[in-house]
Each structure stands twice: as C-alpha cells, then as structure tokens.
Amino acid sequence: MPNPRRIGYVRVSTSDQLIDRQIHSLQERCDDIRIEYISGAARERPVFDALIRDLSASDTFVVLDVDRAFRSAVDALVTAQNLRERGVGFDIINLPVDVQTDLGEILYGCLALFSQLERKTIRRRTREGLAAARKRGVRLGRPAILPDTVIREAHDWMREAALPCRYVTWFLGVSRLTLQRGFRRLGLEYPIH
C-alpha cells in the first residue's frame, strides 16, 4: 500500500486573484497542493475532478475553507460521503472539528449550507448593484476601444467612400467585430455595399 498523502486543493476564480492565503495555510499541512483557476460554480473543474479521482484510501483531501472546493451544499455533502466510503480523509483547516465524526459531519453540512447562502447573497447583491448602476446611466463593461469620433469617421469612410471593412479595420488596428460593436453602440447601421 502506498504511503498516505495529504493533498491540498486551492481554487480561485481568476488568475489575477491572490492564492497566497490559501497556499500559506496548506503548505505546512500538505505533501502536495493542486491549484485551479476557475469559478467555483463551473460544472467542470478538471483539477478538482482529477484530484478526487486520484485520492487513494488513507490519503487526506485538504482545503482551507468549504467554499474553496464545492459549488453547493449538496456537492459538498456528496463529495464528503464519497471520500468517506473510499477511506479517504477530509480536512478543512478553518473548521476546527474532525469532519469524519458524526458531530463534524453535521457541522460540516451546516457550514456548507451557510457557504451556499453566502454565494447566493453575493450574487444577488451584485445583480442589484449592477441594475442600480445601469439605472444611474453608468456604462458597464470594458471601456470602448475606439472613441465615438473615430467610429463615426470609419462609418463615413465605409458608407460614403465605399472603403471595404478590411481596409478600415486594418487602418484602425481593430477587428471587424470591434467596429461592428462600435457602430451598434452609436446606433449606426453597418454599411453594406
């Protein structure tokens, strides 16, 4: 039988988010750490899925917080049950109880439900904040690549001078899609010759 391993799992939604806090907490307690840059709500999490499949009896799966590994309370409970049935240990550093015990399992389930509630609350507040910003006239999303005056000029070149789109986009250094979006944003029809 291979030596038991403690394998940590770190997840952040984007590559520009810091993982230092998770790494620092797991480093001293794990033999190996797997890192994944993906939304916790993603249906497919290749690193997580491979790690869970790779764990053997007597290994231990380690995470800093419940919400770093699971999409929902159901996902958390099903995965914990699956690990338990396979003889794999499970350690949540910020949950100071053994989740393998009856009491630990109940506390873990409650924590998973609270994590799910927190995610839903954050999502709802974000939607409400975006809706309020739109009502105030705030333009959301990335800033426009081309100023309005340049878009109007490009429209004139294509409509009046009959310049093909490929020449205009080459000259401006943008894609056809960027130019089309600019026209749409200003309410200009795409000139078709």
TrEMBL record:
Keyword line: DNA integration, DNA recombination, DNA-binding
GO biological process, alphabetically ordered: DNA integration
PROSITE patterns: RECOMBINASES_1 (PS00397), RECOMBINASES_3 (PS51736)
Catalytic residues in the record: 13 (o-(5'-phospho-dna)-serine intermediate)
Keyword Ribonucleoprotein: no
GO molecular function term, any single one: DNA binding
Alphabetical list of PANTHER family matching this protein: DNA-INVERTASE FROM LAMBDOID PROPHAGE, SERINE RECOMBINASE PINE-RELATED
Protein name: DNA-invertase hin
High-level lineage: Bacteria, Pseudomonadati, Pseudomonadota, Alphaproteobacteria, Rhodobacterales
